[in-house]
Every structure is written in structure tokens, then in C-alpha cells.
Amino acid sequence: MLRRQFIQSGLVLGATLPSLVACMGKDGSSSPRDTVRANTTPAREVDPKLAPNAFPYGVASGDPEADKVILWTAIKPRNDSVDAVPLRLEYVLSPNRLKNEADWAALFTPNATRQLGEFLALKARDFTVKIDLGNVALYEDVRFAVGQVSALPAAQFIYYRFVAGSQVSRIGRAKTQPALSTPKANLSAQFAVASCSNLPEGFFSVYDMISQVDGLDFVLHLGDYLYEYGEDEYGDGSALVRNGVDRVPEPATEMVTAKDYMLRHAQYKRDPELQRLHAQFPMICVWDDHEFTNDTYRDGAENHTEGEEGTWAERSANSLRAYFNWMPLREQFSRLSTGLRPDPREVIYRRIRVAGLMDLIMLDTRYIGRDKQAATPGVDPDRFNPNRSLLGQAQREWLQLQLLLAKNEGAVWTFLGQQVMFGQLNLVELPQIQALGQKLLGNIAAVNMDQWDGYVAERDRIRQFVKTIGLENLVVLTGDIHTSWAIELYENPLLLLGGALEKPFGVELVTPSVTSPGFPDGVAEVVSAAIPAANPHIRYNELKTKGFVLVNLNADRMLAQWRYAANIKDPAQIGVENVAMRKTFEVLAGTNKLIAVTESALPLPG
Ligand SMILES: [Fe+2]
């Protein structure tokens, strides 16, 4: 099917399809090739289609490449009778990073401002709009009433806002990646890694800490961006009140229906810290289980009751549709011709290149190809079954191709941005831990069957492929388990206990959660201290504190720094870091070894 037909059919179906809708001029003509200059914003007037505050969800950007970036917003219509709201994009290109949001508005002078539109925010897409700015191929058969799409310049900042009727959104800032031809010696990158942000569990202090970091190129969100539970099922939102607003989930019951998923996404997008984070930096995101429901796999989930909560097919489709509408990720239209499975509307695995410095391969280990988890508590031999898959065959073959491309095209570092812990975690031989009992251990089992440990053959296939092609500097980035880990990746880490000297084939950085709980006080310390005895490849763990990982790299070395929030329950401490807890590791290119450092040659952003 041609792209245009796809777009049109998407509108008819109202499914998880591209949101861009370009309107031609009234006479069917396109605008002149020269960029149309912005007029002054019209005086505020009552618009029959718009709520008094039409942009309560802010703006977001995502999936930045050297020539394009996704820009997103959502509109609040005046009432239920509205089906579509026209709006246009205004943006300014600049080589300059302006730190203070207060300075951004001054950039929108008539001469500097470019316009594009109009676009339609459709009820069928929850009144969200997603524009792939700079993606010339996507728009080649589309003409706009105002402005035109041309490829974006590399390494540029894009300051952007949306205009609907007389109302203007807040301003966001995005940034394109450096040109592929940039010499490696001139390249560096800085980004934050986050996961597991449960709204009724705490304030998003960690997001505010990330927003304070100057000089980030983008933020990776590895999933559990939102949670499905009702009030008091996983956090008491009524106990967290700021400026008269509590954090009770909307709806107050578990999200199951299409409307539930939409309302929950909309609520998260109104959170001030999350909204500011999106305005500050492009996000590169993947889902984990809670964007669906707990412990999702391809054909179901632990927290789904077939029949009582509808069919899994319906529920997962509700989740997918909401995710694609509300998250600023590029939708994978190019896969359309490959047949029904994987359905292109389910594909989030993708590759983003940061010139020759790093390849970022984002994976879906959660949904598209995952076989049901083996039985707990970890003795089920099915975890070694070579026929069980975490990625699915199509994604695994795609991943192998991307790894080969990364190798052949000379990326210094290859990152896998994904959901569940890749390295082995052995708690079986630790009596101190088993004595605590399974209840206290929470989501860390003796062997966690939800992680790659539950899909051993799949992990072996990836490791063998990396070794076979001689890929250097593999870095796995992980979320999901609400705890911090720095891991060297070995085929058999237990051999290290016998004094074996083996070069690791990569490292893994596991980010703690934004708010979701880890281990309780007391238990966290006991488990943390016991882990190294049976896990010599695990160089660091911290099991209860909320935070994120800051990554900074150039062609010679990578720094990873864990940063922690002082308090997520007290609104007066939003954005306050517990600086004494910072933990930093350095990886020199070519080593795959984690070295704890207190000072480093590479500056970390303040
Ligand atoms: Fe989580």
C-alpha cells in the first residue's frame, strides 16, 4: 500500500497510524517554496472548538536524527461534539542552546519564525498531533497551506510551539543529531536514562533533576512511563498533594478500556515535571509492561483476566493506540509491506545513529515477540528451552542486521536501549537472601523469569552473534526493576570466582526508577551486600533509591553516573539531589570494563 493510502486508511480506521494530516490550500495550491514568515499571533478570542486552556498537555519531541525530529502536542477541545481541530506549527532553528525557557519566546521574531500547517488534531487520535519535522520522504506527496517541509540541518536546536485559533502552546526545544560525516574526534554525546515513573507513588523529582542538567542531547525512557493500577493498588495518590492537586490515578480504577488508557496518558502529560522534561529535551522511548499491564508478553499478561477485562487482543490494542498517540516516537511506516506480523502498528524497535560515535538500537523485549514467562521461582528448566523467545524471530533477525550495520559503519559504541536485565543475576546461592523469604524480595526472584535470565537461549544467540562479528563496545541500557546495577557481561560470570580471566563482551547499566518502589529499608542493604559473593560481574548495585543514569561519552571513553533524588514524597524537595550518593563508572573504549571513578578526564554536566 502506498504511504498516502496508508495515511488515509489510518484516518478512517482511527487506529495507531500516522497522525500527520496536511491540509492543502483552499484552492488546492501549495505555498511558495520560500518559508512563510510568521504573522504576529492574533489577539485572544473565543474559539468555538477549543477549551479555554487548549494546550494543557504541553509539547514533546522525540527520536531525533541528523535531519528530522518528531514534534508532538495534544489539544483539549471545547466539548464532545468537536471531531477535529486545525492547528499549525511554528518553529525557529538556532545553533544556540538557550538554557532558560524564559529566553525561548524572544527567538520567535517574525523574520526567524517558520510556519507549517495546517494539521488536524483528530478525535480518532485523542486530539494528539505528531509531526515528523524534516522527514522529506514522508511528506513528498503532501502539500501544505502554509510552509513546506525541508530536511533539518544537523546539530541544530529547534524551538517550537503550536498555534490553534487564538491560543499558543508552551515552547519546546529539540535538537538534531550531528551529521554522519562529523569526524569522530569532534564528537561527544550526553543523555539521561530513566524508567518506571508511577504517578501516585511520588512526585517526579527525578524528571526535574534531569531537566536541570545542562547540555543533554536527549533522554531515554526505557518504559513503565505510566502504570495501569487504580488508586491505592500501587501507590496512594491521595496522600500526595501539591497546590491542591493530588496524584490519584485517572481513572481511579485499573486502566482497561480505550478511554481508560487515553485518560491515564493525558493525566501523566499534565504533570508539571514530566511536561517540563518533554519541553527541554527530545525523548527516545520504548514501552515496558505497565504501558499495557503487569508482566505483559505477546499473548497476555499476569495482570490481565481474559473475559472479565475483555480480550487481550482488545486490551493490548487499546494500549498500543494510546501509546502511539501520546508518545513522541516515530512510527515505523516503512515496515508496511512486510506483511501482517509483525504488524507495523506494533513495531517500536528502531535504530538511531549519533554520527559515528554511537548507534542506539531500541528494542521491544516486552511485547512483540515475547513468549510467556517460565514459572517462578526460578527452577523451571524451560528457561533454557531454545524454542522460547524474548524478541521474536523477526526482531532478532532485525537486531542482528543492526549490529552488523553498527560494526560495518563504524560506530564506536553500540547501545541497546531495552527493558529487562540482560546480565545474569544469581541469588540462588545466597542464604542471606533466601532467608528473607520471597515476599520481602518482591520482584527480584532467585532467578527472575521476566528478565533475560528467563530466556537463556535467546541471550546466548545475541552474545554469540556479537562475538562472531567482533562488535566492540556494546552497552546494554535497562530499566524495569526499580534498582541500580552496573554489570560487566560475560558468558559465564561464575568462572570469575575461580580466577578465570575473560574479557567481557559488553557492559550493562540499569537505571533506578523515577518513583516506583525497590526494596524496603533494611532489606535493601542486606540483599545489596550479599550480591557480590555469587555475582562477581556485578560491580555496583543500589536497591531502594530513586534516580537516573547520566551517560557522557566520546570516542575514547564513556562515563555513567547514577544520580539520586533526596525525596520523592515531599513537594518542597522536588528536584533536590542527594549529591553524596552519586556513583560514577568509566569504560575505556575497547575494554568493556567498569572502573569506579571519583574524578575523570571527561566533564560531566552540572
Ligand atoms: Fe516498573
Order of strands, main sheet, comes to 11-10-9-21-22-23-24
Radius of gyration: 24 Å
Overall pLDDT, averaged? 88
- Structure class: alpha+beta
Tally of helical runs: 10
Helix content: 10-25%
Runs with pLDDT <50, length 5+?
1-43, 334-341
Query: For the terminal residues, how far apart are their CA atoms?
Result: 49 Å
**Ligands, ions, cofactors:** fe (ii) ion
CATH secondary-structure class of the largest domain: Alpha Beta
Question: For this structure, what is the CATH homologous superfamily of the largest domain?
Answer: Alkaline phosphatase D (PhoD)
Q: What does this 3D model show about the protein?
A:
By secondary structure, the protein is an alpha+beta fold. The protein is 17% helix and 21% strand. It is globular, with a radius of gyration of 24 Å. The chain has two domains: 3-175, Immunoglobulin-like; 184-597, Alkaline phosphatase D (PhoD) (Purple Acid Phosphatase, chain A, domain 2, 4-Layer Sandwich), CATH 3.60.21. It contains ten helices and 24 strands. The chain has helices spanning 3-13, 205-212, 258-269, 272-280, 312-326, 393-408, 431-434, 438-441, 456-469, 523-534; strands at 59-62, 69-74, 84-94, 114-122, 128-133, 157-164, 167-168, 172-175, 188-194, 218-221, 283-285, 296-297, 300-301, 350-354, 358-362, 413-417, 474-478, 484-489, 506-510, 538-542, 547-554, 557-564, 583-588, 595-597. The strands form five sheets. The chain has a seven-stranded mixed β-sheet with strand order 11-10-9-21-22-23-24, covered by helices on one side. The site of fe (ii) ion has 6 residues, from loops.
